[in-house]
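As the next step, I selected for study a record pairing a protein sequence with its C-alpha cells, which the following lines show:
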Amino acid sequence: LVRGMASSGWSAPERMARSSVRVFQYGTLPGVDLRGTDVSSRGLVPLNFIAHQGEMAIAVQTTLLGRHLVTNALAALAVAQADGWDLATAAAALASVQVPQRMQILVGQHGGTVIDDTYNASPASMKAALEFLADWPRPVGGRRLAILGTMRELGPRAPREHHRLGRRAAARCDLLFATGEECEQLAAGARAAGMAEVVVAPDPADAVRACAAVMRAGDVVLVKASHAVGLDRYLHLIVPPHP
C-alpha cells in the first residue's frame, strides 16, 4: 500500500516503479486508487467521508474522532480489499469498529470541554489536534483555548517548528497558553500571525493555572505537548473530580 499524499523521499510514482509487487494508492488527493472526499468530523460527531474507487462512491461512517484520521480509515479499507473484501462490505464493517484513541474528551470546570491530548506531540500531530479544535462546534459565548507545550526531539528544527506551530494556533483558537522550553518561539509565531491574546508560562503548572483562571462555561480547551513536558499532571486544575 502507498499512501497517496505528499511525503518526503520518493514520489508515489517512483515508489511504484521501484516495486516488484502490485501497489495500491490511497489518500485524499486525485489520481489514487482509493480516494476520500467530503471529509467531515465535528466535535463528538465521528469521522465520515465518501470513498471513491473507479466509478464507485460509497458513504463511509466511522467511530473515529477527527478528520485527520481519514487516511487511517482509507488504509483499513484498502487492506480489507487486499484480503478479498469488496468496498461496500469493508465500509459497512468499518462503521462498527471501536478503536481506542489517545485523545480523551473530558468535562472541564464550569461545564466546559477539555481535549486531553497530552500523550505526545509532533508537528503533524499538533496540526491534527488544532484542526480537531477548529472543527469543534462553538457554543454561544464559548471560546476555543489551547495550552500548547514543547514538541521534543526536533533538534535544530525546534525553533522553526514551534514558531510555525504558533502561527497555526493563531488561526484556530481564541486564546493561547504557551509553555515549555520553546514557549517564547511558540508565542512569537502566534503574535506574528496577529494573535493578541497569548499567555507565556514556561512552567506547565502555571500555564494550566492561568487557563483555569479565565476558563468559563462553553469553552473548549485543547491541552497538548510532548509527554515529557508533564501537562497531564496538571489537568486536575481544569478538570474537576467526578462526584
